[in-house]
Each structure stands twice: as structure tokens, then as C-alpha cells.
Amino acid sequence: xxxxxxxxxSGGAMSSIENIASEWIETKKETAEAExxxxxxxxxxxxxxxxxxxxxxxxxxVYLITSLALLGIEFFCVIFGVDIDxxxxxxxxxxxxxxxxxxxxxxxxxxxxxxxxNYANTKQGN
Length: 126
Hints:
By secondary structure, this protein is an all-alpha fold. The chain has helices at residues 2-10, 12-24, 28-42, 47-80, 86-98, 100-124.
């Protein structure tokens, strides 16, 4: 009888309980590994991140070209005295150019984050 009690506590059931408990307990390293695995699953080779950076850069370029075009049109209309409603053109140009700081800040943040992730992956050897 004593052998059965000792066997119960030294092996079998206690070992199983210990294995289950160790699976439930997550360490910081395990959590970080799980997050890394999730990122690798979502974007295995960084293609999504590169596509996002490429698309954001293209859209930022469109914004800059549109802003410069509006400023150029307004400039030439004032210089050459073209008969259009300059107040409406000025309002439109002001609305577009007022967005320069927020759009540039967001562009910088997105591209910097992308390069930061790329640097961290390179540093870790991924």
C-alpha cells in the first residue's frame, strides 16, 4: 500500500500535474516568442511591411505633387491675371497645404517604424 502512495507522488499523476502546470505558466520569454511567431505568421518575410512603406511613400508623393500643382496654379493665375475665382483657389490651396505637417509626421512615423522593425530583425539575425 505504501508503495502505491509513494508511486503516486513520485511519478505518474504528480508528473502529469507538473507538466500541465508548467504549460499554464508563461514566462516573458515565452510570451515574446509567441508574439514573434504571430508576427512571422502574419508577415513571414516582411513583404507586407515593405508594401505598406512603398504605398505610403507613393501616396505621400501624390500629396506633394498635388500641393505643388495647386500652389503653381495659384501663382500663375495671380501673375498672369487669369480670370478665375482666386479666393476659392486660395481656400483650396490653404486646405491642402495646412495638412502638410500632419501628413509629413504620419509619413515619417510609418516609414521610421518600418525601418525600425527591419533594423531589429537584422540585429537579431532574422
